[in-house]
Amino acid sequence: MHRTALLFSAIGFILVAAGSLFLGNRAADYIESATQEQVDTALRASGQNWATIRPDGLVVHLTGLAPDEAARLQAIEIMGQVIDASRISDRTTVLQSSEIVEPRFSLEMLRNVDRISLIGLIPERVGRSFILDRATKIADGGTVTDMLESTEHRVPSGWARNLDFGLSSLKQLPRSKISVTPDSVRITAVTESHEEQRRVEKSVREAKPEGLVLLMDITAPRPVISPFRFRVRMDEDGLELQSCSADTTASKDRILRAVRAAGAIDTLTCDVGLGVPTTEWDQAIIQSVRALKELGGGTLSVADSDISLVASDNIGQSHFDTVVGSLENALPELFSLHAILPPKILEDGAEKDAELPEFIATLSPEGQLQLRGRIQSALAKQSVGAFARALFGSENVDNRTRIDPELPDGWPGRVLAGLEGLSDMHHGSVVVQPEKLTIRGISANPDITSDLSGLLAQRIEGDKYTISVKHDPKLIPKASTLDHRQCEAQIRAVLIDQQIVFAPSSTTIEAESQGVLDAIADIIKECPDAPFEIEGHTDSQGGAEMNRNLSQQRAEAVLNGLLARRVLIGGLTAKGYGEDQPIADNGSEEGRAANRRIWFRLITEDTPDAPATEEETDE
């Protein structure tokens, strides 16, 4: 009994030990398999495909041929993110860089006539002395700077061929940079002329060995063009470009586009070179070509800054003067224009009398004034333009007059007299000729004929004027239904709703305020005889004197804007008060914006000479 119990106990112990051993082995296999899968997945995800993992219990062996030390360390770091670093056994081998990296051979040769510089890394087997000997011969007694490095490695395929071609090219290019690699040869060079450029390019291409990759950029300096010329001729057959110069390719393209737009259909060429008289050369040419097209025929010749425009003899004098006047206004300052309209030739060979020179001013019902024809000098043209802008508003005057120094004496005085008479018209025209002034049109003034007669009798000697005007009662302003105070209140209501805004530190009225001026003009037309002072005010930023001048100019800009809208301004005055009359605190942006304002004040006998106060504005 006792022996049997011992036997069963021994058997039980053996079975328990065997079971524990079996379960332990199965657990170890599971742990190793799971560890290998986790670590291997992490390494593959990071691109470390060279690494091999071999678990051995809790220890994980890392083996494989790492491409470099950085890859080995990265693999260990990745494994350490999955398992404890103490479990990693590093048995990797790092591949030496000499086993995978070969040097990149290249040679750069710089030549400036007799000075040559050699830079780069070359194979030792080719021989430094071989390159230096050939470079020394090319320099022909000049300086050769050796900055070459050499190394004992295999000579790449194509190196010897490319090197020989590069040295041969260096010999015929005194100003060049030649880069040689086993794959290609790159040549950058400058020649003395376009002819030499073409010759060298042909020679280099012919000498290039078969299979060599050549990259070539050989240039020549632009030639000096003196004088810069342009000439076109237009007749019934079209436009012919006879000569053309430009300073850049972009300028050439712009000029040729204008020539094509004017009617040229042949192949067009234009020389590009140095010596342009001004950077605005192409703009002067383009404007002149457009003028020739508008004339419909003639010859245009330009030499540097001198422009000669000879029109066809079948063009009318008036049209000629208008086109030439527009061209004179459009040309850049440096250019001078000499325009000729040849006399017409009759069938018997005799010359037809030339058309009389004239000045024409045309006033449209909308108040637009066009000035055409001839003026005696640049100063007279400037004076006439200023006088017209004062009478009709600067925005309404289109001055396309041309200068003709051959006009008779007294011409500017007759022009000014005609413009003054035209200012009393609703619409009409003035024609000034050497022996006569003619004024025609329609006016709201019932005494227009007698008024013009008195004006012209004082300004023009003798009876050398013709008046053909009519009075139209429909143009007389209707009697106002508003008294002056009501007009003032309505104007102020407009300004309270929306102020007249100017560009910063400028007297230019912004586009958004043009509607405000329109509304004020309509109100004042209801009270044409009401005397108003247009007040200009600023904030406190800037000097007091500067602000006063700015406010004065802005008030005058409003006055001119009303004049441009055909408002009778006899009762209007403009005055700038600067920063002296604020209506808000200048310490805030909102306050400064409120202080920058235009205001209208009705002038009466009991009105004090003071600008509007804050209380007036609030009303």
UniProtKB/TrEMBL annotation:
<keyword id="KW-0998">Cell outer membrane</keyword>
<dbReference type="InterPro" id="IPR036737">
    <property type="entry name" value="OmpA-like_sf"/>
</dbReference>
<protein>
    <submittedName>
        <fullName>Membrane protein</fullName>
    </submittedName>
</protein>
<dbReference type="InterPro" id="IPR050330">
    <property type="entry name" value="Bact_OuterMem_StrucFunc"/>
</dbReference>
<keyword id="KW-0472">Membrane</keyword>
<dbReference type="InterPro" id="IPR006665">
    <property type="entry name" value="OmpA-like"/>
</dbReference>
<dbReference type="InterPro" id="IPR006664">
    <property type="entry name" value="OMP_bac"/>
</dbReference>
<feature type="domain" description="OmpA-like">
    <location>
        <begin position="489"/>
        <end position="606"/>
    </location>
</feature>
<dbReference type="Pfam" id="PF00691">
    <property type="entry name" value="OmpA"/>
</dbReference>
<dbReference type="GO" id="GO:0009279">
    <property type="term" value="C:cell outer membrane"/>
</dbReference>
